[in-house]
Amino acid sequence: MIHFSFRYATNPSDVVGYDTQKIRANFLIEKLFTPEDINLIYSMYDRYIVGGIMPVKENLKLETIPYLKSENFLDRRELGIINVGGKGTVSVDGEVFELSKKEALYVGSGAKEVIFSSSEENPALFYINSAPAHSHFPNKKVTKENAEIVHLGEDKYANKRIINKLIVNSVVPTCQLQMGLTELLPGNIWNTMPAHTHNRRMEAYFYFDLEEGQTICHFMGEPQNTRHIFMQNHQAVLSPEWSIHSGAGTSNYSFIWGMAGENLDYSDMDICPPNELR
User: Fold this and answer.
1) Do the record's keywords include Metal-binding (predicted)?
2) Which of 103, 135, 142, 226 is most open to solvent, judged by the fewest CB atoms within 10 Å of its CB?
3) Residue 119 carries which DSSP code?
4) Which residues are part of a known binding site for Zn(2+)?
5) What are 42-75's pLDDT values in tens digits?
6) Strands 161-167 and 178-184
7) CB of 240 within 8 A of CB of 168?
8) For residue 244, what are the CA distances in angstroms to 168, 207, 227?
């Protein structure tokens, strides 16, 4: 079954007055994976869609939703998929792609039928991002062997991490969607530090591989007026173009970043030095 909801964009001057409950209601996505369901959140930040798909015994077809006003989900959109569960398959107009954990698939606009299924008892968990697309690019599976991999951070700053650029223009051509996966090494907790903003595009973070009983504190807001959201495993957060996006966990973890906006320049960011954050 497909479930969908809608999120409006927010003005930073309004967010200053939000309490904890209102911040969570506007930016946090608490439940993405439920058995035999497709859960979608349509955001007015660059009309970005964040979703989770959990096939167990059934095959789940990605149907259009009313907000799109289109016959098929991908008539005017592109799609990025990263599996964070057991092995599964994605069929795109009859072409079958097998995805193991932490493998990605890009699906270009114009695809008519996208079907998700699990291949083993441990169900696949397909995390998806979708953005409007005005050009078609070929479908492509991306594994870590195909990815652009960057090692960043230092143990002394507790931010040593591996960035796997999966669906980025240096690996696979896209219209505007970009996605990747960052893995914090044991003993490291800080992601995206130094923090940054990029007014040219929005972002979404999805946290996973967090040890049971632990938590992640996701930081957002304007650099001089920050806010925070405590998050659990398999939760996501929307990050406006005016907001920083950084986090610290009570243990190490992995997260998926997805972006859409005006350009495909991964390095397009305005750095916020740690000692200048407020």
Assistant:
1) yes
2) 135
3) S
4) 196, 198, 203, 245
5) 999 999 999 999 999 999 999 999 999 999 999 9
6) antiparallel
7) no
8) 21, 16, 10
